[in-house]
Specification:
Strand order of the largest sheet: 3-2-4-5-7-6
Protein name: Pyruvate oxidase
Shape: globular
CATH superfamily of the largest domain: Thiamin diphosphate (ThDP)-binding fold, Pyr/PP domains
InterPro entries: DHS-like_NAD/FAD-binding_dom, POXB-like, THDP-binding, Thiamin_PyroP_enz_cen_dom, Thiamin_PyroP_enz_TPP-bd_dom, TPP_enzyme_TPP-bd, TPP_PYR_POXB-like
Radius of gyration: 24 Å
Largest sheet: 6 strands, parallel
Pfam family, one: TPP_enzyme_M
CATH class of the largest domain: Alpha Beta
Family: Belongs to the TPP enzyme family.
Oligomer: single chain
Keywords: Pyruvate, Thiamine pyrophosphate
Strand content: 15-25%
Number of helices: 15
Amino acid sequence: MLEKRTGTVMTEMLLEWGINHVYGMPGDSINELIDDLRKQEENLKFIQVRHEEVGALAAASYAKLTGKIGVCMSIAGPGAIHLMNGLYDAKADRAPVLAIVGQVQSEEIGTDAFQEINLERMFDDVAVFNKRAATEAQLPDLLNQAIREAYVNKGVSVLIVPDDLFAKKFKNESRLTSQGYYRPEVFPSEKSLKEARSLLDGAKKPIILAGKGVKNASEELVSFAEHIKAPIILSLLAKGVIPDQHPLCLGQHGQIGTKPAYHAMMDADLIVLIGTQFPYRDFLPDGVRAIQIDNKPEHLGKMYPVEVGLAGDAKETLAYLTAHMSEKKDDSFLKEYQGKMKEWHTKLLEEKKLEQNPMHAPQVMYHLEQVMEKNAVISCDVGNVTVWVTRFLPLLQQDFIISGWLATMGSGLPGAIAAQLAYPDRRLPYAGMEALLWYPRTL
């Protein structure tokens, strides 16, 4: 039997999982695996970053854009600590990420060796899977388990490996686990669907607040909204799910949102929350009936009291409701706020077209809009820039990524790096923290 280095076995397994690049920095407690990655450089690219936080944020951004797992790696000690911000971003935005973290040599663990820290304790809060391999024989099965749990739980998996294990020969060809994972099919009960239809039939002023959970259900969202004559408000993470200029769209909500969105929300008699955990309670009305659709049952009613919770996939649930309800005739509420939104767009355009010296953010966004390609990826940083992009940069069919729930500054450039790797043929405007550096560029 031909024996292989365990690091070689792991790189082959990464390829079998469909992983084609890894973000990281070389260093003492990861160099053995770096050597194995070098041998696979044509198929499994090592993207060397200049700081581990960039690698973790890029891995999270890649996962947000594609739905595929993002992979980063670091040494023990300081490198592992630097990963934390990016990993918390992935946790907060529910992005599947694998972090392969080196550790000091096996015989040195527990001796307070150079750069040794308690990695298992440090990663405990951020990870859905957090294990350290004790022998090389465990590594293939632990890797399968780590990737599977990251996908299934949409979170961070951390696999900690003393560097000497990568160099050891892997002698056991049989594995205890298999690759791949299976998504459960979640659909609301007939009783809950009946209750939701009753509420929708009785509503005169329904409004939809949709989040990133509708990213793959934009057509169903629009059909449902047209059917019940409801305007759509999008969370920040859902920007671009439908065009900002779509007649049903009232833009974003909250501090970064539009006035029509706020007033429509406060005027509504039924809120339909879809794929969102909207955190800003002050921007939601009190005492209004609500329906919530989410594929995570534990999210139902978590941020807002709901009368009916529909535990199910947004795409299938919206399609079912649309097909099993009579179309509403009264569109007066929708028409009222469509008119207000038209006035809002007119005022924004006037502000964007002003000629001022120095140039202000709305004018920068206007010029970016003129050169932004239809299939561009917008990687937006956090701060005032978030307000400017949200309010003044209308998206048509572009993808949009940001550090959403954690809202960490410095995520724009790692997001652009990840987007370039995910979609190398698409042009990438980078919305950075420096307002006057917003211009189309390719990395």
